[in-house]
Amino acid sequence: DAKTTQPPSMDCAEGRAANLPCNHSTISGNEYVYWYRQIHSQGPQYIIHGLKNNETNEMASLIITEDRKSSTLILPHATLRDTAVYYCIVRVADDYKLSFGAGTTVTVRA
Amino acid sequence: DAGVIQSPRHEVTEMGQEVTLRCKPISGHDYLFWYRQTMMRGLELLIYFNNNVPIDDSGMPEDRFSAKMPNASFSTLKIQPSEPRDSAVYFCASSLLGYGYTFGSGTRLTVV
């Protein structure tokens, strides 16, 4: 599986958009980009995933660059409850394992 | 749906004892995963099942660990004998067709 690189931590202001970057320069054509988050003491929570096109759901938007070597998760209006560790994961289409890295610790401040 | 249900939430046991962790996946999901989380190693995949059949157990640390899925609605992870280094939070997750895992709340295991 392609490796991902995320900043270890970032702060954002409540009510503002939070843009979380992820580099996956060795991604292959059949690998998906997944985002999960883990709020303290809870199990990880699925956020969104994509292959080539940008994706949006009720939680977030995923922007994947045209060369697919990086992506950005956008939380449109961050709240204090969005404080969590966010994991960017690359997964081969026919391999159902998810390998979690260290993620980005996001702190939303009032 | 109540989500993925794990029991117990907390377990404290003495070294050498057998420990059994339990998981009830979301009804209809065909994949089930067991993960372990520690501060040092983060989240590690231990084993996963598809339609109750173990597919990949390469993450199981050693023979002391075993997992079963006797039917679509129940799975166990057993550690025998337990050791202090097994102390961790163990998560179970289920998925339909391998997409968008849903994790349980985890079992915090402490081996003293």
Distance between the termini of chain B: 36 Å
Could you tell me the mean pLDDT of chain A?
94
Order of helices and strands of chain B: EEEEEEEEEEE
Report the end-to-end length of chain A measured between terminal Cα atoms. Answer: 38 Å
| Helix proportion of chain B | under 10%
Number of helical stretches of at least 4 residues of chain A: 0
How helical, in percent, are the residues of chain A?
A: under 10%
Average pLDDT rating of chain B = 95
Strand content of chain B: over 45%
Please give the number of β-strands of chain A.
9
The radius of gyration computed from the alpha-carbon positions of chain B, rounded to a whole number of angstroms, is 13 Å
How does the helix and strand content of chain B classify structurally?
Answer: mainly beta
Total helical elements of chain B = 0
Strand order of the largest sheet of chain A: 1-9-8-3-4
Q: Strand-and-helix sequence of chain A, N→C?
A: EEEEEEEEE
Question: How many strands, which pairing sense, and closed or not: the largest β-sheet of chain B?
Answer: 7 strands, mixed
Query: Which stretches of chain A of 5+ consecutive residues score pLDDT under 50?
Result: none
Number of strands of chain B: 11
